[in-house]
Amino acid sequence: MLSLTDEQLVERAQEGDRCALGELISRYEQRTYNLAYRLMGNHADACDAAQEALVRVCVRLHNFRGDSQFSTWLYRVVTNTCLDELRRRGRTRCASLDEAMPLDEGSVPRQAVDDSDGPVEYAERHEVQAAVQRAIGRLPYDYRVVVILRDLHNLSYQEIATVLGTTLGTIKSRLHRARQALRCIIEDTEAHRLDIAG
């Protein structure tokens, strides 16, 4: 099954092949969680949203017509699931400052003697990543989702338009505004940090 394309797996899964469905889920499980985590902002909510999204994919796979790539359709299901949950709650998301940022590989690489960043550089890089994640979390959902899909998941503008069910021009506009808003949030945060330190 590993040698089959997504399209072949989808076709088999739509015909009732449970192994093909399992392989599809296995291929996209981590990416589903990563996207949900960035949209929801914490591990517990991301796990719930990712699980719900994958259940929706299993239940609605027969509706997938193949007009786009399976991954694009999956991203749409995940973003809609997260948006539904955020709307249902009617509150802003909460993020634990004590919770570690998960990696795509699922764990921190082993430490070894080499020429890579030392502990200080490693900590600084992770501090910057956490600050950017917090700043992204402060964006309105419409802006947050386009930044995440474009800059973190490397989807094309057209794929994002398909995922979100909107036009290419709208995506470009939202992304431009989102990046401006993100820049302002980061600059304000840095200015506030310098005021406190000084």
Q: Which helices and strands appear, and what pairs or packs with what?
A:
Blueprint: H1 6-14, H2 18-40, H3 43-60, H4 70-89, H5 119-138, H6 141-152, H7 157-164, H8 168-197
Helix pairs in contact: 1-2, 2-3, 2-4, 3-4, 4-7, 6-8, 7-8
Family: Belongs to the sigma-70 factor family. ECF subfamily.
GO biological process, one term: DNA-templated transcription initiation
Protein name: RNA polymerase ECF-type sigma factor
Assess the beta-strand content as a share of residues.
Answer: under 5%
| Whole-number count of domains | 2
* The first-level CATH class name of the largest domain: Mainly Alpha
Summarize model confidence as the mean pLDDT.
83
Largest sheet: none
Question: Which class do the helix and strand fractions yield?
Answer: mainly alpha
Whole-Å distance between the termini?
A: 60 Å
Describe the protein in words:
The structure is a single chain. This protein has 198 residues and is mainly alpha-helical. The chain folds into two domains: 1-95, Orthogonal Bundle (Rna Polymerase Sigma Factor, Chain: A), CATH 1.10.1740.10; 119-198, Arc Repressor Mutant, subunit A. The chain is 71% helix and 0% strand. The chain contains eight helices and no strands. The longest helix is centred in the last third of the chain and has 30 residues, at 168-197. The protein is globular and about 65 Å long. The model is unreliable at 109-113 (pLDDT under 50). InterPro entries: RNA_pol_sigma-70-like, RNA_pol_sigma-70_dom, RNA_pol_sigma70_r2, RNA_pol_sigma70_r4_t2, RNA_pol_sigma_r2, RNA_pol_sigma_r3/r4-like, WH-like_DNA-bd_sf. Keywords: DNA-binding, Sigma factor, Transcription, Transcription regulation. Belongs to the sigma-70 factor family. ECF subfamily. Residues 131-182 form the RNA polymerase sigma factor 70 region 4 type domain. This is RNA polymerase ECF-type sigma factor.
